[in-house]
Each structure stands twice: as C-alpha cells, then as structure tokens.
C-alpha cells in the first residue's frame, strides 16, 4: 500500500521538476520536439503502468508519466510567444 502511494508521489515530484525545465528546453530545442518527446514519455508510461506486474515497474512507469505531465506548461509558453 505504501509503495503504491509512493508511485503517486514520485509522479507528482517528477511532473513538478519537469515543469521547471521544460520552458528552457522548449526555447533551446524548439516546441515540436519537446512536445513529441513528452507525449511519447506519457504514452509509454501509461502503457507500462497498466501492464507491469510489479510495484517497482509501476514506480518507473509513473516517473515516465510525470515527465509527460511536465508538458502542462506548454500552453503558457506558446501563449507567451
């Protein structure tokens, strides 16, 4: 039970950390590559979380989902431009 809760906490922490860095990455690398890479991470994380048989795999998949969820700041970046 505690490890399942840890997977959510890891997801939120990763999402917050990526939100801080995604603006810089989008300025440096361009919006499209950052958008596609975050969406890919989220999709693979969601598939992994749904199909993993272990809690360790679930935590790793939730980290990937957190990277994808860091994309939530992208509309603000585009609107700023």
Question: Keywords for this structure?
Answer:
81 residues; mainly alpha; 4 helices; 88% helix; 0% strand; elongated
- Please tell me what the overall shape is: elongated
For the termini, the CA-CA separation is 44 Å
Largest sheet: none
Strand portion, in percent? under 5%
Uncertain segments are none
Radius of gyration: 13 Å
Which range best describes the helical content: under 10%, 10-25%, 25-40%, 40-55%, 55-70% or over 70%? over 70%
Number of helices: 4
Order of helices and strands: HHHH
The helix/strand class is mainly alpha
- Report mean pLDDT, rounded to a whole number: 91
Number of strands: 0
Assembly status: single chain
Short description:
The protein has helices at residues 2-29, 31-51, 55-69, 74-80. With 81 residues, it is mostly helical.
Describe what this molecule looks like in 3D.
The mean pLDDT is 91. The protein is built from 4 helices and no strands. The chain has helices at 2-29, 31-51, 55-69, 74-80. Helix 1 runs antiparallel to helix 2 (31-51) and helix 1 (2-29) runs parallel beside helix 3. The termini are far apart.
Task: Please write out the topology.
Elements lengths: L1 H28 L1 H21 L3 H15 L4 H7 L1
Helix pairs in contact: 1-2, 1-3, 2-3
